[in-house]
Amino acid sequence: MQKPSMPPVVHLLGTAVFAQGTSEFMVAGLVPDIASDMSVSIPAAGLLTSAFAVGMAVGAPLMALLSLRWARRPALVAFLAVFVLAHVVAAVTTSFEVLVATRIVGALVSAGFLAVALATVTGLVAPDAKGRALAVLLAGTTVACVVGVPGGAFLGGCGAGGPRSGPSRCCAFRRSSPS
Description:
The chain is 78% helix and 0% strand. The chain is built from six helices and no strands.
């Protein structure tokens, strides 16, 4: 028996989950560079990882309840837009406190996005394909775990500008003015 194909939106949502997860895990590879750029200690910069984790832990049940009655497509778009906006602010801020706040906000809306995406993909497929649809969606997080930290370390060390190089600026993490 041939498996039914997944609706393209399931793969699209999985890609968005991958991007959000990568931004979560990538910071771990950038901690020394962020510490240097922000003039904070490495342990203080490491709090950026904890801030995202706390935001996800608090945000998952909170955002799932908050978005329960929202239309799914607008909720997904809104969560993703706020996530991107938080990363834009993170990329341009010179304040470590603002950077921490952007990590928390990013985590809250990432949790909301994931909650709505989980409900969305299971509603798009036949009952016998729900497990596969969830696997496709959550594969984004799995791949992000594998790619995020080494990707951050790579971006932090690449180019003559090191962590202040163009690719690092594009990964949407705070960079001070070029030296």
